[in-house]
Amino acid sequence: MIDFKQILSVSLILFSVIDILGSIPIIINLRKKAGHIQSEKATLAAGLLMILFLLGGKSILGLFGIGVEDFAIAGALIIFALGAEMILGIEIFKPDPDASAGASIVPIAFPLIAGAGTLTTILTLKAEFAQVNIAIGIVLNLIFVYAVLKSTTWLERKLGKTGLDVLRRIFGIILLSIAVKIFKSNAFPIEIV
């Protein structure tokens, strides 16, 4: 049953976890390297991942013998690499000239939009909210994500080179912190005795 309060709660939770606004410097940086970000493909790929996880995330991971914690740690390592790239000015994710959609899918669709944090959050939300309300929350977030991806050129012009450089380094540190937090909480879970 559709419940607007649940939809609002789910949308806000996913908005904070996806943090597409915080990813703007990363997306601009990737667009410069790849030449073009295919917003539609990135949004659709992320949406497909989120819906798949909503419908059967634990089962999908179970097929590969992977736990939610393992998945989160893998996502944390990718996020850590992105953060290190932003702060140190090194190139870890090299664009593939033969794959024009490559930068749109990895690392934008996964792990930036539909990363380990987002996918594990979706699994967690299922315990508290109706599946239809989670699905609507996902779609609302994807609309916003698409709008941000489409406006990165405009945002880049408004921020300028210096603004982007400062933002890139600040969000690089934030990404490193998020990666360490995800890694710590999943690699060394606190055991209650």
TrEMBL record:
Q: What is its main location?
A: membrane
Subcellular localization: Cell membrane
Top-rank taxon: Bacteria
Tell me which Pfam families the record gives.
MarC (PF01914)
Coiled-coil region(s): none
GO CC annotation: what is one? plasma membrane
What keywords does the record list, in alphabetical order? Cell membrane, Membrane, Transmembrane, Transmembrane helix
Q: Give TM regions.
A: 6-30, 42-66, 72-93, 105-123, 129-149, 170-190
* UniProt topology in membrane: Multi-pass membrane protein
The Swiss-Prot or TrEMBL record describes its family as follows:
Belongs to the UPF0056 (MarC) family.
**Protein known as:** UPF0056 membrane protein
Native organism is: Algoriphagus zhangzhouensis
